[in-house]
Design goal:
The protein is an alpha/beta fold and about 240 residues long. It contains eight helices and eight strands. The relative contact order is 0.19.
Length: about 240
């Protein structure tokens, strides 16, 4: 089974994620965007090049728009220019794309293919295989679980989102008292049922904001105990 991870936006904290992945023998696809977001430091061109020597670098548009809500001309430009920007930054071909906000449709996917990408990632979760190269799903998002630490009506959203999927996978909810426990249970299901791959994704600032670094390491350490797991970038999913 392939184990792959992906990280969105290109924050400077991605460098810390990369170091942790390497510590556990894992790899990542980092989808970078030059547009500064949430007033956080982004990776520099030099850092992108260095990161690309050890991990896969994918494109994520130039300004992080909702691609279905802009004109076709702007969408095409955002997609094509981001591919060129990544290739100029790394000196390597850029084959993978990630839709900002997971916002896509058939037209947008067509623009991505037209730009010369081999595949694109969405934000669909609890999937372990995919047949559409330009709508690759993920297995799990690293995010607070079972509750969102915000005092509003969305506090239950992580639990409510996961519940039907856990039921489908026949994973008892009581075994998932934290994100790392959830991740281990879902990974064990994927491995135990001979799924093609497990795809973890996230945003590095959320690891800092919600104090999830230890949860990530706990999960990666668990995955490392499976000797038959192959660590690979997102592009490997296209041929799995």
């Amino acid at each position: 089974m392939i184990f792959t991870t992906s990280w969105d936006d290109g924050y400077a904290l991605d460098l810390q994620v990369a170091r942790i992945l390497e510590q556990y023998g894992a790899t990542g696809t980092f989808y970078v965007c030059p547009h500064k977001q949430h007033d956080r430091r982004m990776v520099t061109t030099k850092e992108i090049r260095e990161l690309g020597m050890r991990h896969e670098i994918g494109a994520h548009t130039m300004s992080h728009p909702h691609l279905t809500q802009v004109s076709p001309e702007k969408a095409r430009r955002e997609i094509a220019e981001s591919k060129q920007w990544v290739e100029d930054s790394t000196g390597n071909p850029c084959t993978m794309f990630c839709y900002p906000y997971g916002d896509t449709d058939d037209k947008v996917a067509g623009y991505v293919k037209e730009a010369g990408f081999a595949g694109a990632r969405t934000v669909e979760q609890f999937a372990f295989s995919g047949t559409q190269a330009f709508a690759l799903p993920t297995s799990l998002h690293i995010y607070p679980y079972p509750f969102r630490p915000v005092a509003n009506r969305r506090v239950l959203s992580p639990l409510l989102h996961a519940r039907p999927h856990l039921k489908r996978l026949k994973i008892p909810a009581y075994r998932c008292g934290s994100w790392s426990q959830l991740a281990k249970q879902v990974f064990a299901y994927a491995h135990g049922t001979n799924q093609p791959w497990f795809h973890l994704w996230g945003h590095s600032p959320e690891l800092e904001k919600y104090i999830l670094w230890n949860e990530l390491e706990s999960f990666l350490g668990y995955v490392a105990t499976y000797e038959d797991v192959v660590h690979a970038p997102n592009s490997a999913l296209l041929s799995s």
